[in-house]
Amino acid sequence: MRIDILTLFPEMCNAYLSESIVGRARAAGKVEIVCTDIRNYTLDKHRRVDDSPYGGGWGMIMQAQPIYDCYCALSAQLGAAPHLIYLTPQGKTLTQQRVCELAKMDSIALLCGHYEGVDERVIEELKPEEISIGDYVLTGGEPGALVIADAVVRMLPGVLSDDECFTDESHFNSLLEYPQYTHPYEWRGKKVPDVLLSGHHENIKRWRRLQSLKRTKERRSDLLAGAELTQEERRLLGL
Ligand code: ADE
Predict the structure, then answer these.
(1) Confidence tier at 115 by pLDDT (50, 70, 90)
(2) CA–CA separation, 209 and 186 (whole Å)
(3) Ligand 1, atom 4: closest residue by C-alpha
(4) Is the dihedral of CA 94, 97, 99, 102 positive or negative?
């Protein structure tokens, strides 16, 4: 898979995406990630990419031309137009479900806005999918692009060691993950639950499932609507 990030801050993005699991996935050729500086596409002799809003108001707006030319150059280089995503608090909130769908695509491009947004006409022209990473406002789209790139890369085949590592984790089955423990057995008087030391895999599995269900009910009962539950589990949760 290839992920392109169109940004005014390519070094910021590359720094994060060169470390840890994503950095290793890139080095192993499991994903190609390219961060492109939108400023390279400005036709302005002072290399400007933003200007004040028509109608007045606070802040600066990113101009349409550098963004449009940057995306067109990328499409020409790839020989096909990649699925374009614009990071904006006005978009649909990102979910694990959408992350899994994006991970199946050959190529996505993440457009990061900065300042007070981008000229609406480039949005009309390119018709990107608009994604928000939550109901709060950031200074730019970069953290959102990094969130998407990170979440997508870890779903690619061979990036995490085996498939089980994400079938159990939070949000995979519309359930939050069960609590995890490691050595030592006792810490500040708190012991690891005995069942986890029993070596009885069926009991461990049952205990973990129950913890997942309890946590989800306590913390995010809204998620239960999308979860597959047995009759017995529904009864247990009082549903
Ligand atoms: N840019 C600014 N705020 C954002 C948000 N919440 N999600 C995605 N992109 C953004």
Answers:
(1) confident
(2) 23
(3) 89
(4) negative
| Ligand 1 atom 7 nearest Cα | 132
CB atoms under 10 Å from CB of 158, counted, come to 10
Please give the pLDDT value at position 171.
Answer: 83
By three-state DSSP, how is residue 17 classified? Answer: helix
- List, for residues 183-210, the tens digit of each pLDDT value: 999 999 999 999 999 999 999 999 999 9
Q: Which of ligand 1's atoms lies nearest the C-alpha of 134?
A: 6
C-alpha 35 – ligand 1 centre gap (Å) = 18
pLDDT of residue 172: 77
The three-class DSSP label of residue 117 is coil
How many angstroms separate the CA atoms of 187 and 207, rounded? Answer: 21
Place of tokens 């949760």: 237
The model carries a pTM of 0.94
Q: Which residues line ligand 1 (CB under 6 A)?
A: 87-89, 132-134, 136-138, 141, 144
Task: List, in sequence order, every beta strand (DSSP E) within 38-82.
Answer: 50-51, 61-62
Can you read off the two tokens belonging to residue 52? 């004040």
Block residue for tokens 């009991």: 203
Measure 111 CA to ligand 1 centroid, in angstroms: 11
Question: Half-sphere exposure of residue 107, counting CA atoms within 13 Å on the CB side?
Answer: 11
Compute, in angstroms, the gap from residue 102 CA to the centroid of ligand 1. Answer: 18
Gap between the Cα atoms of 212 and 207, Å rounded? 9
pLDDT tens, position by position, 39-82: 999 999 999 999 999 999 999 999 999 999 999 999 999 999 99
